[in-house]
Amino acid sequence: MRQYTRQTIKRNFFVAMLLAPFIPVLLALGTGGYLFWNHAQQSGLDKLTLLSAYNARVVDRFLDDFLGDLAMARAQLEYPDSAGLRVVFETLAVKHKGLVDVALVSPKGMVLAYAGPSVYKGTHVVPGRWLDEALERGSSISSVVSGQMGLPLCIVALRVNAGDEIVVMRASLDPAVFTSLFTVGRGEGVDLFLVNPDGEVIAGSGGQVLTRDRALVEHVFMDRVGTAFRDSLSDAAYSSTVMSHGGWILGARKHCGTLFSAADSTLLFLGMSLLSGGIIVLLSSLYLTGYVEKMLLQRDEEREKLREQLYRAGRLAELGEMAAGFAHEINNPLQIMKSDQAYIEMLLQDFRARAGEDAEFLGDVDEMAASVNQIKLQIDRCARITHSILSFGRAGKSEAQNIDVSTFIPEVLTMIQKKIQLSNIALRVDIPPTRLVVHVDPARLQQVLLNLLNNAMYAISETAHVRPGEIGLACSAESADTVRIEIRDNGAGIGEEQKTLVFTPFYTTKPAGSGTGLGLSVCHGIVESMKGVLDFTSVKGQGSTFYLLLPRVPSSLE
User: 261 falls in which pLDDT band (50, 70, 90)?
Assistant: First the structure.
């Protein structure tokens, strides 16, 4: 099975934390930005299309209006001479500031009457395509041509009746009039221009007149008349509309920098959002990775502590087995000593019978008997100690039996009473004379009581410099079916933050090497197996009270 080091886990976790939120955000922002860019681009092209169509309608309406004004002016012309035509010219010039001159031309191209600037005299009126179109269609709007003195003119012709004859009323307009029309409906940053079928700029919003401005009319534009598109070579967007008169084309151009400025700003905002989100994700990943690394380090430290505690627990178990072995080996010489002590007692009885009335000899025998009795007491004491050690360390299946805690507790105290006295701790025992029988395993109950007494002595040792130590051990009938065993001390007590951890395995407040943290956890499990309760109350700095609640055996079953 592959083992992962802390650094490997840290690196993998960092990469996962970085990519898990970043990739979906990147995909979402990328998709959203792409869709928004396309929408903004299409929206800009649609606006440009509407702008070109609107201005085309404006120019068409202007030309229609001018043709209508020519027709109305002809109705006011009584005589087709220059004087009458001058009146028509002045009337039209009031409304149409771009009007240059007006002339009546016969079908053969002869100028019948002329009104306009005196420098022209009408000699510049040359028959052309406009004359044929007007005679054939009734009206004609020509492209911009170079007129007298090289000035560009836009010719508008209308077929009219002069008595029984058909003549053509020809009017010329300054192309600048179209430029003035563009300024009204022109959007910001937009170039508007009129283009004839030959690709020449008739008039432009930038003042272009009768030019071949390739910056405005690229071949790509002429190839895609009537559509809106973006040209990557010129970095501009184009839109065009075919007009009703003259086959003219009204084009609109806008540089992409201004057309898509909002989209660029949005993309910049998305980029900044992505960058900010990436920084936040990076910092969060670093923080969480550091936190996880800290937790892993803490886990490793706890694992090392656990390994050390298990090692000490194993050593203690070995020590317990050794102690049980020592106790078993000590029992053998104790039995021999006890046999010899019994034999000496028999000899002393024989010596006493032989002494008769000899008082001095009887005194010696009595002294020897006192010494033998002392030896017997110590042999019995050693036997009880080894018996307790063997009982405490006995392995095997738990064997519950009825025991009277009133007599069992004093037996347990004999194992630890000497240690309590040497620790200069006062022991207060309160055991009622009545029988309090419980059905438990004596060895396990002994283990619980010894552990609680040892913990009480350790707690008192921490406050021995403050006040004299005292341990209280009491048992009583909690109720008709419950026996309470209580061990009380006036030691250091347990803090609030530690109370929830008291029965946790391997938790200990003792310094390293002084405890395994298993004692209370094991005791808690033992008491629960007895169908009892092990709990405590404690006040920090004042002491603790641990108590056992065990099921009481009814007197009828004792």
Answer: low
Q: How far apart are CA 151 and CA 175, in angstroms?
A: 10
Q: pLDDT by residue (tens digit) across 121-177? A: 555 667 778 888 888 888 888 767 766 556 778 888 888 887 678 888 888 888 888
Instruction: Judge whether 152 lies within some domain.
Output: no
Query: What pLDDT, on the 0 to 100 scale, is given for residue 351?
Result: 80
Task: Kindly report the backbone phi and psi dihedral angles of residue 321, in degrees, each rounded to the nearest multiple of 5, phi listed first.
Answer: -65, -40
- DSSP secondary structure code for residue 556 in this structure: G
- Backbone φ and ψ for 100, nearest 5 degrees, come out as -100, -50
CA distance 237 to 256: 6
The residue among 188, 330, 249 whose CA lies nearest residue 59 is 249
> What whole-number distance in Å separates Cα of residue 130 and Cα of residue 134?
6
Instruction: For residues 89 and 424, give the distance between their C-alpha atoms in angstroms, rounded to a whole number.
Output: 137
Question: For residue 175, what pLDDT is reported?
Answer: 81
What residue type is 87 in one-letter code? V
Does residue 431 form part of some domain? yes
Domain CATH number, residue 518:
3.30.565.10
Count of C-beta atoms within a 10 Å radius of residue 46? 12
- Looking at the domain assignment, is residue 294 inside a domain? no
**Is 10 within the bounds of a domain?**
no
**What is the reported pLDDT for 1?**
42
Residue 526 and residue 507: Cα distance in Å, rounded? 17
Spatial neighbors of 524 by CB under 8 A, at least 6 apart, are 503, 534
